[in-house]
Design a protein that fits this description.
mainly alpha
Length: 85
């Protein structure tokens, strides 16, 4: 690690001296663990609600192709993921 300066290396080597570093690490770890799980649960619930309410038939009769519908659903879920997570 020749590119890192010595003060940064000492910060990483002694995390107990910097409690804010532990806080950031715990937040990032929780985000990495829970975000995919939460995203999968939310999307599965949305698909389940659409299946129960026969929303696929309504979307198909709206004049959009299924490829366009899936693209829009992906883009909306992607942007919501960026905004809220």
């Amino acid at each position: 690690m020749t590119g890192l300066n010595s003060s940064f290396q000492s910060t990483i080597n002694q995390p107990t001296d910097y409690p804010w570093l532990q806080l950031i690490n715990s937040y990032l770890l929780a985000k990495v663990i829970f975000t995919p799980t939460l995203l999968a649960v939310v999307i599965s619930r949305v698909v389940d609600i659409e299946n129960i309410g026969d929303m696929w038939k309504t979307l198909k009769t709206s004049g959009w192709s299924m490829e366009e519908i899936f693209d829009i659903k992906f883009l909306v879920s992607f942007f919501l993921n960026i905004l809220y997570f």
